[in-house]
Amino acid sequence: MIVVNGVRAPIERMMQGDQPTGAPAAPTGTGFPEADATAFASQFALAYLNYDASKPDDRAERLKPFLPVGAETQFGWDGIGRMSAGNFQLSGIEVSDAQNAVVTVFAQSGAQRWKLSVPVYYSEGKFVVSGQPGLMPAGGPANLPQLPQADHDDTAENELRPQLENFFKAYAAGDPTQLQRYVVQGVTLAGFDGKVTLAELKSVSAPPGGATREITAVVKWTFAPGAAPSPAATSGDSAEETGGLDQAYRLTVEKQGGNWYVKEIRGGTRTVE
Q1: Rounded distance, CA 66 to CA 82, Å?
Q2: Which residues neighbour 121 within 8 Å (Cβ) at sequence distance 6 or greater?
């Protein structure tokens, strides 16, 4: 039995592509409305995988819109324990015909990722869960092989560090006048408008090359507290302090007149620890 604390984020709309929320489902070759079935199954999974023995009627009430008439109200739960799951995403859908399919969604409960397969039946614009769901493990992280050690240009890295420190400070502030001092002429970057602050430029990695190179940088951003202290919070509560996150970036830089300037900034890719 999985026991976790707290309910995760609500379900997200899971369908891929550019179909807007609320748009009618595009039928497949069988005529089965896959998009709506996926939404139905994900909402069911939210009700099904969240239960609390102290409030069993809550779960039964949430399940009502999904179950056939006469189905057992807890739909297989024995009424013991507590489980909390969320972060539902589409894994796949297996359509049998115009009325039957099995929708499989990813879910997360604490540190455990799951797949939940939900059989659904469709008729006259409505859905119902047509059988007991099947819970399966979603697997852990892939085994990531180590990359070979990259070549470094120590001279360029030493030259870049003070320039990038100033660039990331200006990028955090989002001041276009300050940013223009550190970017290639004609390039415009928006910045964070003060929503983050540069705590530290942790590393700069530059490969050997010419006047234009793609480099990587790791910075630590700090964030202002997101909410006012709760009544139980104390002055030493770490949750109320300014938090920080290490973030990796790829930057295209150009050397002009002895200084390096940023031409482009993107999120980081695979790196060697």
Answers
A1: 21
A2: 99, 100, 127, 128, 129, 130
31: its two tokens: 């005529």
Listed in sequence order, the DSSP H helices in the chain are 34-48, 56-63, 154-173, 176-180
The sign of the dihedral angle between the CA atoms of 189, 156, 208, 257 is positive
Residues 220/202, Cβ–Cβ less than 8 Å: yes
Say if residue 273 is exposed, middle or buried (CB neighbours under 10 Å; 0-12, 13-18, 19+). Answer: exposed
| Per-residue tokens: 34 | 């896959």
Query: Which residues does 72 contact at the CB level (< 8 Å), separation at least 6?
Result: none
Mean pLDDT of successive 10-residue stretches along the chain, which has 273 residues: 36 38 45 95 95 95 95 94 93 96 95 94 96 92 83 94 96 92 92 93 94 95 62 51 87 94 91 53
Domain ranges, ordered by start, for the chain:
34-137, 154-227+240-267
Architecture (CATH level 2) of domain 154-227+240-267: Roll (3.10)
Instruction: Supply the pLDDT for residue 139.
Output: 85
Residue 203 Cα distances to 8, 151, 208, 218, 268, angstroms:
34, 15, 16, 5, 13
For 34-137, CATH number? 3.10.450.540
Q: Give Cα 198 to chain centroid, integer Å.
A: 23
Beta-bridged to residue 218, according to DSSP, are: 203, 248
pTM given for the model: 0.68
